[in-house]
Each structure stands twice: as C-alpha cells, then as structure tokens.
Input
Amino acid sequence: MDSNVSEIPSTLSNPAGSSASSARRFSWLKQVLRLDNIELTVLALPTLIWYVLFTYLPMFGIVIAFVHYRPIRGANFVQSLFRSEFVGLRNFKYLFATPDAAIVFRNTLLYNIVFIVVGIVVPVTLAIMMSELYSQKLAKVCQTAIFLPYFLSWVVVSYFGLAFLSVNKGLINHMLTSLGREPVQWYMSPQYWPYILVLVNTWKNVGYGMVLYLASITNIDATLYEAAVVDGASKWQQIKYITLPMLKPMVIILFILSVGRIFNSDFGLFYIMPRNQGALVNV
Output
C-alpha cells in the first residue's frame, strides 16, 4: 500500500502546489493581455512591420555575395538567385583585388567620421541656441526651417544643389562673375566636393539631431538655472556646467548609434547629389 502511495505524482499528492502553479500561469497570461500592453503593441506594430520588410527581409540578399548571379529567363530575382552557381568567397577576392576597394573603404570611413563629429557639434550648438530664444514664435519658426530639409528627398536636394552649382545659371557662379571672377566647373572639380558633401549632409540632417537635443534641454530642471543665476553664473557658465553635462547621456546614445552605422553610406548623397558625374567618382 505504501509503495503505491509513493508512486502517486507530486502534482496529485500536492494539489495546493498545482493550483498555485496554474494561478501563476493565468496571472502571467492576464498581465500579457492587459489593455495597455495590447495598445502599446498595436502602436509598435507599424514600426515592427517596417523593420521586418525593409531591414530584416533584405538581409537574405547577402546570398548574392556568395554566388555568380545570372538572371534566368522566366524566373524572378529570388529564383534566379538561388539557382545561381555558388562561388564562395570569390566575389570578395575580386573586390579586394581591385584598386577601388581601398578608395571605397577610405571614403566611407572618413566621411562617416566627419559626419559623426559634425552631427554632434552642430545639432548641440543649434539646440542650445534655440533654447535661449525668448520668443516662442520665433523659436518655432527657426525649428521648422532647420528641421524641414530632413524630410526632403535627395532628388529634391540635388536640384537645390544644381541651382547653386550650375556652371551657367548657378547662383554661386553668378556671384563670382559679378565680382569679376571666372566661373567654376563645380561638377568637374573633385577637390571641392568633400566640403560640399559634408555641408549638404549637415544641412539636410542637422534638424533631426537638434530636435532630440532640444527635447533633452527642455527636460532639464529649471531650478538648476535659477540657482546658477543666484550664484552669479554667466550664460556661458550655465551652458558649460549645467546644459552640456545634462546632454551627455543623449550625446553618448546618438554617438553609439552613429558608430554602429560607420560602414554604411547614403546612396542618395554620393550618387544623386553629384549627379553621377564621372569626374567625381573617387570623391
């Protein structure tokens, strides 16, 4: 009799423990299905779908780096991709054997380093300047004007650039000829384009960073500035000892995110902005 009793499962011999375990499971399920969790999930769903469609699914395209891709008649891209001959690392061997490989890596790395530095200094400076404006209407107008280029496509930006850099009708050449100087062949002069690309990229993207830093500045406790004024601190001292240290966490986060994309490049900036001019290929 005792041996039969000892063989009874623990869940049957301890009904209290079983009911407690079931209660914990149902409690976890209720917590997951809470209304606020469902609302937050629905709000995050569009962003999740966007990342899946445009970030994770395209990652399968890395297969093309290891095959000798040839389009197959009657087959779509995916079918042709997986039917192509597997060549291993041969494509990479060809890439690094070309003289353009060093130029590509050098330009990508150096441009992104400059973009990271400028993308921190300029937005922080503008955010501090915007926070010091007393007129709220003027501040909103300035913020809108600075943030607006972020929403423009590179096609539109390239036409803005053409309006300034065109040889015959460009604004800059018109000013040069008015001063008695010779017009510059901007799209045939690669020595100017590192500065032009940095300037255009900064103009287009500076508004995004400025808004983030400005939001951080508005969250700084106003009593810190009031105490600094009472202690006789100048405006520069307030910025140096209060604003900049409080912006440090945001600067670190954006810096880390930027470093994670240091080997990425903006195709529109380097292809559309120079208008695919052969003289600017190695810029």
The chain is about 70% helix and 0% strand.
